[in-house]
């Protein structure tokens, strides 16, 4: 045999390299997932900041008022929007179909109605809806939210 790598050493080295590459790609994809961030926001500066639990209560229809007097109206992105899927997954750990079932049971029992659904997830449409609904609350990727918006809470993947 020649000095240096024999076949057994070569296979071990190759396997180790593959495992190392796989762990780096897993770390990279996990860190990319954590970069997804949503803002729950309004154009009304009188709406107070939200805790994560209060935000969950709003998006589960368990509360419709803030500070006992501000009646909130929610808007939802279209069912086909990838942002809607990500948002509900991050905030409530639910898929769109699970949320549809949840809202259907609340509606049927008379305990709640789902948020109004927009036709598009374009930020212009969201802002237009918020302008027409002074106590409206919406969500969008943080990067799309205008600077003059009142960001009530940010939701980061994995929180």
Give structural notes:
By secondary structure, this protein is an alpha/beta fold. The protein has two domains: 1-34; 36-156, D-Maltodextrin-Binding Protein, domain 2, CATH 3.40.190. Helices cover 45% and strands 18% of the residues. It is built from five helices and seven strands, in the order H-E-H-E-E-E-H-H-E-H-E-E. It has helices at 7-34, 52-59, 82-92, 96-109, 123-132; strands spanning 37-42, 65-66, 70-71, 73-76, 116-117, 136-141, 150-156. The protein has a five-stranded mixed sheet with strand order 5-4-6-1-7, sandwiched between helices. The protein has a two-stranded antiparallel sheet with strand order 2-3. A hairpin with a 3-residue loop joins strand 2 (65-66) and strand 3 (70-71). It starts with 6 loop residues before the first helix and ends with a strand. Residues 13-34 have low confidence and may be disordered. This is Phosphate ABC transporter substrate-binding protein. Residues 1-28 form the signal peptide. Keywords: Signal.
What order do the strands of the largest sheet run in, or round the barrel if closed? 5-4-6-1-7
Gyration radius from CA atoms, angstroms: 22 Å
Query: What is the count of β-strands?
Result: 7
Order of SSEs, N→C? Answer: HEHEEEHHEHEE
Strand content: 15-25%
Top-tier CATH class of the largest domain: Alpha Beta
Under the CATH scheme, which architecture of the largest domain would be assigned? 3-Layer(aba) Sandwich
Going by CATH, what is the homologous superfamily of the largest domain?
Answer: Periplasmic binding protein-like II
Integer tally of domains:
2
- Give the % helix: 40-55%
The largest β sheet comes out as: 5 strands, mixed
| Low-pLDDT windows of residues | 13-34
Span from first to last CA? Answer: 55 Å
The assigned structural class equals: alpha/beta
The average pLDDT value, as a whole number, equals: 83
């Amino acid at each position: 045999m020649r000095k240096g790598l024999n076949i057994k050493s070569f296979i071990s080295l190759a396997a180790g390299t593959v495992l190392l590459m796989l762990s780096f790609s897993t770390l990279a994809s996990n860190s990319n997932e954590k970069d997804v961030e949503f803002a729950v926001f309004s154009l009304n500066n009188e709406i107070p900041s939200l805790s994560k639990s209060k935000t969950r209560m709003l998006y589960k229809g368990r509360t419709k008022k803030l500070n006992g007097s501000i009646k909130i109206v929610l808007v939802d992105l279209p069912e086909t929007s990838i942002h809607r899927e990500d948002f509900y997954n991050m905030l409530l750990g639910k898929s769109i179909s699970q949320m549809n079932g949840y809202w259907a049971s609340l509606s049927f029992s008379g305990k709640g109605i789902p948020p109004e659904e927009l036709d598009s997830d374009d930020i212009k449409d969201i802002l237009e809806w918020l302008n027409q609904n002074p106590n409206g609350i919406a969500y969008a990727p943080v990067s799309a939210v205008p600077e003059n918006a009142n960001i009530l809470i940010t939701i980061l993947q994995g929180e």
